[in-house]
Amino acid sequence: MLTLRSATEIDKMRTAGLYVWHALQIAGSMIRPGVTTGEIDAAVERFFKDFNAVSLFKGYPGKVPFPAVTCISINEEVVHGIPGRRKLIEGDIVGVDTGCKVAGWCGDAAITFPVGKISEQKQRLLDVTRRTLDIAAEELARCVLWSDVARKMQKHAADNGFGVVESLVGHGIGRDMHEDPQVPNYVSRETLRQSDFKLRPGLVLAVEPMVNVGTKDVRVLRDHWTMVTTDRKPSAHFEHTLALTDSGVRILTGPPENDRERIDLTPYL
């Protein structure tokens, strides 16, 4: 069953989405050689606390409850990296994923950042993955079925020589971070049969392509969370919370649309 959100509910989700966007700006401002992933996580946690935003990630159930408010994944780490003492190095790429709940409504987004000067291959990976997400935002209001959108996303990655991760997908989002439907970034017989759905105003989706330089296959490390590419080649991750409305697609985790939506981040930078 797909839950369709009203315009008022989508407005409330925008508040959470704005906090997520601002949190990612804080993270991005700290991305440089020598900074630890734990320091980035602490800054985002302080921001959420100051604005009474509840982390969607910290304490998330698993064999080991997730211990941080951000997932920070470096190079071959696809998603769900645990922040800690690891220092960023020139040439790394760093995926930062975070989400929060405000007044009972959720927002979730991710950006992969370069650390200083990166290789041409890594820069192309970032550009292609970001564009893959942009395609979803552009096509959501034009297509009839999600598979139509996913096919275009998959084709863009493949045309550039990269593979889309298939064992991890996006999701519906609203009162909870993970709601129906599942939102794959690729098309197969199985997804057409089991995961496809009609695109209708009121749908709110967390769309999150994960694109790899090499194999699409991933595995989990011993920490029970961090997903890495099996060939240890780089991966990138971009995500937005997207709302399909009667007037088009609204990027709920996008930048401020007016001065009222802006937050002074100086204390966190």
Task: Please describe what this structure looks like.
The structure is a single chain. The protein is an alpha+beta fold and 269 residues long. It has a single domain (7-253), classed as Creatinase/methionine aminopeptidase superfamily (Creatine Amidinohydrolase), CATH 3.90.230. 29% of the residues lie in helices and 25% in strands. The protein has five helices and 15 strands. The protein has helices at residues 7-30, 37-50, 120-139, 146-159, 189-194; strands at 54-55, 70-74, 77-79, 93-102, 105-114, 163-164, 170-172, 179-183, 204-207, 210-212, 218-220, 227-229, 235-237, 240-245, 248-251. It has a five-stranded antiparallel sheet with strand order 8-7-9-14-15. Strands 1, 2, 4 and 5 form a four-stranded antiparallel sheet that branches. A hairpin with a 2-residue loop joins strand 14 and strand 15 (248-251). Helix 1 (7-30) packs antiparallel against helix 2 and helix 3 (120-139) runs antiparallel to helix 4. The chain is globular. The model has no long low-confidence stretch (mean pLDDT 97).
